[in-house]
Design brief:
- This protein is an alpha+beta fold.
- 29% of the residues lie in helices and 22% in strands.
- The protein has 18 helices and 22 strands.
- The strands form five sheets. An eight-stranded mixed β-sheet has the order 6-9-10-22-21-20-17-11, with helices on both faces. It has a five-stranded mixed beta barrel with strand order 1-2-3-5-4. A five-stranded antiparallel β-sheet has the order 12-13-16-14-15.
- The C terminus is likely disordered.
């Protein structure tokens, strides 16, 4: 390698960058320019050296004459070197233009250059699509140079700017809330932070600014928003990270329609400015309808394969597996797979495995092939007439296959939803040319926790019941909690939950009734929410709001299926950062200062690089 460039380089110190690499066009012909960036590629043609110079705006071709004394350093340039170039813009010769580049009509004839920073050969080519994600995450700073990720993060930036502009124009105030806060139950585990100055006590990183934004409503800030960082210690998926960003919105003197209107305005503006799409009316669907038709409360409505209730078709057949489900008020549902009679046994076995992966005990199916033959694993229990009746009830025709699940309602829906989405992709039934939105409304207020044998909040404990169900909550009629619907709503897009929210409880006695219904004792309620309950007694306006998943929204806008593609420094599925090696151990003195003792064996700690467990 040649010697490093000296700090006294004229570039940066004297010669300031005049243009970005991707900004030059034919109308800049004849202009003197200064460019700085990374060497994307270098081609030595003997008498001339061609360098594609790259920054996040794009690529520009620079031509060097290595015989020129000022151009000697062009011989040393390699991929990913950072260089500065001064030169003149000229049109490329006829036949040498590159229509694939925005700058393809021009090139820069270098008159001066310098190497600002040398680079080792990178561990992978940034445009290589076949590099493993593990390698990309380990060298994230290299991967972030790729046009793919730079475009994604530019879209994320634009999304945030549209949010700020659109909501500000509607009289919302952007207000920051604390990151170090109080642990409150919101459905997931908290990330805890020990307090040095208050030994034995902990902060929690916020799962959302829920109580804080409600306190802002009590404080009279009637329209608030924040692009908030949130943290949840939960298992990860392709569209979930332990730390994430949400557009948090709250507004006073509002009911469901008011909140939905504000968020639709924001949605339309985002899709118009980023995708150039004017969105039409957004349909609404109740939670129950969504579950009945799609088996999901975030349905992908870009394709059919809708679920059908088949209980009446199997009632009275005497088949025990069906009769037991009917007796315990479960569900027998299915959907039609067009031309599914052609599916091989191995294809059906894969579907059965997927059913089991999603909690099912198995998968039933009925095929009626083009030769008129009926096949089904239950054919030994049901004659052709009964198979044909169930087939017809599902809306199938000859040549189709009906997939059937018989179990409790939630399991049946979960299994069929997973199969539906899988087949939608496999059979190319999904229309990827558009984004399909649907509001899901009228969620249950409660869901029953079978493990702990108690009721839990379907959204969170601050969600208001619908007016007609308020008395059930106030009366503490536990036998009817399953009937109570909430003023809650989600916005689904292409099978993802894009937004979730609700109208909040704004009366102290209703909030106390809610905590009681969730099994919280008076002592626990006072400890965790005493400050909030007291605040509700000082004049609280009716209010409600919503939170957008920024990462998911940008993922959809960028047409990628992996949320890590739209986050600068994401974590893996095990919540670790491969680049920085976090989480990692801390030294014994830090733990002692916090009064913490690790409840792990010394041998186990040393495997992770941790020092000997500290004793408080």
């Amino acid at each position: 390698m040649s010697p490093q460039a000296t700090p006294a380089s004229r570039f940066v110190r004297e010669l300031k960058r005049s243009h970005r690499c991707g900004d030059l066009r034919g109308n800049h012909q004849g202009e003197d320019v200064v460019l700085m960036g990374w060497v994307d590629s270098r081609r030595d043609h003997g008498g001339l050296v061609f360098v594609d110079l790259r920054d996040r705006s794009g690529i520009c071709q620079v031509v060097f004459n290595p015989q020129d004394p000022l151009m000697l350093k062009s011989k040393d340039m390699r991929g990913e070197y950072v260089i500065g170039v001064r030169g003149k813009v000229r049109l490329r010769p006829q036949g040498m233009k590159n229509p694939k580049l925005a700058t393809g009509d021009i090139e820069v004839e270098a008159v001066e250059c310098d190497i600002l920073s040398e680079a080792k050969p990178p561990p992978f080519q940034i445009t290589d699509p076949n590099v493993s994600e593990t390698t990309r995450l380990k060298y994230r700073y290299i991967d972030l140079r790729s046009p793919r990720l730079q475009e994604h993060l530019a879209i994320r930036h634009k999304f945030n700017q549209i949010v700020r502009k659109t909501l500000s124009e509607q009289n919302f105030l952007e207000i920051e809330t604390p990151i170090l806060y109080k642990s409150t139950p919101e459905g997931a585990r908290d990330y805890l932070v020990p307090s040095r100055v208050n030994p034995g006590n902990f902060y929690a990183l916020p799962q959302s600014p829920q109580t804080l934004k409600q306190l802002l409503m009590i404080s009279g800030y009637d329209r608030y928003f924040q692009i908030a960082r949130c943290f949840r210690d939960e298992d990860l998926r392709a569209d979930r990270q332990p730390e994430f960003t949400q557009v948090d919105i709250e507004m006073s003197f509002a009911d469901v329609d008011d909140v939905l209107k504000v968020n639709e305005t924001l949605l339309r503006q985002v899709w118009k400015e980023i995708k150039g799409v004017e969105l039409g009316p957004i349909p609404r669907m109740t939670y129950q309808e969504a579950m009945d038709r799609y088996g999901s409360d975030k349905p992908d409505i870009r394709f059919g394969l809708e679920l059908v209730d088949l209980q009446s078709a199997f009632a009275g057949t005497g088949v025990r597996m069906f009769e037991d489900v009917i007796a315990r008020k479960g569900a027998i549902k299915g959907f039609v797979v067009p031309n599914g009679a052609e599916f091989s046994r191995s294809q059906i076995d894969k579907l059965t495995d997927k059913a089991k992966e999603n909690g099912g005990k198995g998968l039933m199916w009925i095929k009626h092939d083009k030769d008129g033959k009926w096949t089904s694993p239950v054919s030994k229990f049901l004659d052709e007439a009964k198979l044909a009746a169930a087939f017809k009830a599902a809306g199938a025709k000859q040549g189709d296959m009906v997939l059937i699940v018989s179990d409790d309602y939630d399991t049946t829906c979960a299994v069929l939803s997973a199969l539906r989405l899988s087949l939608g992709r496999e059979l190319n039934l999904i229309d990827h040319s558009k984004d399909f939105f649907v509001w899901i409304v009228d969620f249950p207020l409660f869901e029953y926790d079978k493990d702990n044998k108690r009721w839990a909040a379907r959204h969170h404990p601050f969600t208001a019941p619908k007016d007609e169900h308020l008395e059930i909550l106030l009366n503490g009629d536990e036998s009817r909690y399953g009937e109570v619907l909430a003023k809650a709503y989600d916005l689904a897009c292409n099978g993802h939950e894009l937004l979730g929210g609700s109208i909040r409880i704004h009366r102290n006695e209703v909030q106390q009734a809610m905590f009681k219904a969730l099994g919280l004792s008076k002592e626990e309620t006072e400890l965790k929410f005493g400050f909030f309950l007291e605040a509700l007694t000082y004049g609280t306006p009716p209010h409600g709001g919503a939170a957008w998943g920024v990462d998911r929204a940008v993922m959809i806008l960028c047409q990628t299926e992996n949320i890590r593609e739209v986050i600068a420094f994401p974590k893996t599925a095990k919540a670790s950062d491969l680049m920085a090696g976090s989480p990692g151990p801390v030294n014994r003195d830090q733990l002692l200062e916090l009064g913490i003792r690790l409840a792990v064996k010394e041998k186990e700690a040393s495997k992770g690089g941790a020092s000997e467990p500290a004793k408080a």
